[in-house]
Design a protein that fits this description.
By secondary structure, the chain is α/β, with parallel strands linked by helices. Helices cover 58% and strands 11% of the residues. The longest helix has 14 residues.
């Protein structure tokens, strides 16, 4: 039996999936659906926090944010959300010291610690770990 490597969804997936005008909307929806369908797909909890901050930055109203996360709650099984751990935070600081953004540093660290592939179109993350898009 071949074990499949873990695939971690980055914030790009969420943002593409919720924005029908994004050129990668269909791809975002596809990867989001994989959370429920494939055993090796997971969503780091930090992705939800970054998505929340991005929605606020894009000017979503409180009601729009609430509706968006209610819809995501139906599509994202809670058992597929990975918590941030102190070990991840400790190692991520090394990447932040190199100028990597806070959320990218968490995803990079998590991927390195678990030998995971990150589902993203983020070039910074791709320069540190294996990615697919």
């Amino acid at each position: 039996m071949t074990l499949l490597r873990i695939r971690l969804l980055d914030t790009d997936v969420i943002m593409c999936a919720i924005n029908p005008k994004d050129q990668d909307h269909e791809r975002g929806l596809y990867y989001l659906a994989m959370l429920a369908e494939k055993a090796n797909y997971y969503l780091p909890s930090e992705v939800l926090l970054e998505a929340d901050l991005e929605l606020k930055a894009y000017g979503y109203t409180y009601k729009e944010e609430q509706i968006t996360f209610e819809e995501l709650a139906v599509k994202i099984p809670a058992r597929k959300i990975l918590p941030v751990t102190p070990a991840i935070l400790a190692v991520a600081i090394e990447y932040q010291a190199k100028g990597i953004s806070y959320f990218d540093s968490l995803i990079i660290t998590r991927a390195k610690l678990s030998n995971a592939i990150v589902v993203t179109r983020d070039e910074v993350i791709a320069s540190y770990v294996e990615t697919v898009w």
